[in-house]
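In this supplementary section we document a worked example of the pipeline. Step one takes a protein sequence of length 339 as its only input; no multiple sequence alignment statistics are reported here. Step two produces a three-dimensional model, which step three serialises into structure tokens for compact storage. The input and output of this example are shown verbatim.
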Amino acid sequence: MSLLHGKDFRPPWPFTSGHIQTMLSSSGVRRFLLPSAAKAVLQGAEAVVVDGGGGVRLTGAHTAQKVRPQSRGLAVLFHGWEGSVDSTYVLQTGSRLLADGWDIFRLNFRDHGDSYNLNEALFHSCRLDEVVHALGDIAARWPARPMALAGFSLGGNFALRAAMQTSRVGIPLSYALAVCPIIDPGEGLFSLEETAPWFYQAYFMRKWRHSLLAKQKAFPQHRYFEMSELKQHLRGLTESLVLRHTDFKSLQQYLDGYSVAGDSMQTLQIPATILTARDDPVIPIAGFERLDLPANVELDIAPYGGHCGFIRDWGMTSYTDDYIALRFNAVADAAMPAG
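The serialised model returned by step three reads:
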């Protein structure tokens, strides 16, 4: 089967709305309507803790495939900000890849997936080293090859940045795919505050405040924030926490620390794909159009899909499931010895 492309995603009304796509992507309605096959990755999943280096521990879940005599490889999945290994899009993608014979590893970032009590320091988006170290631990403990990585939203940003590091540190990552990744945080993340409808910021801020309160409860002896700071909007709260808990001298320096804008990905040595939607109301398309990419990185801009939606119809399955699976399978097929 040939690879799918963003231009081929032509959903019926009302799924041509980027807002409908985005709101449904992580909704309880979608989780309820999804077929049971979209949750198959939960069956037989082993909850594990992986080494993030320097005493950091991250949680995750590994599911071994049972449909082939030999695994196609190891698929690693990264969720988005305030998501988890159990986010709908992660379960759906993992289940699709599992059905094709991939072993699946779903990783929680620090302070995601109820892992607040594992590490005293707060999560922030520049904690790349621990994610790369965790990838190395995952590769060593589950040696199915090839190893391919997919991430969504902030997880897509992490996937691209990790892929730029893996060759340097000897992690055998063969391919990376990012769905609607944050490109320029200064432009993208704060579009939630400046241009996107109010309910997107309200949604993310509600989840973030809940996480911060859960972190405070896990370490009551540590003052992470003042209660008055929690009342701030996205920009203000981010700046307060960055200045309080990191070595960055300014909010802009922090945002630049996880940017993949412009020619940042010229050092990426493995094949990679970036899929986004022109109607994404969360991450502005302009940042994608300004990218200066090496030949091994594919940029695929779909006309529809919203932010990490790409929902086909009322069955609530996503175009990204087949999109990712076909690209991962092509990587596995290319890695098979001739004859």
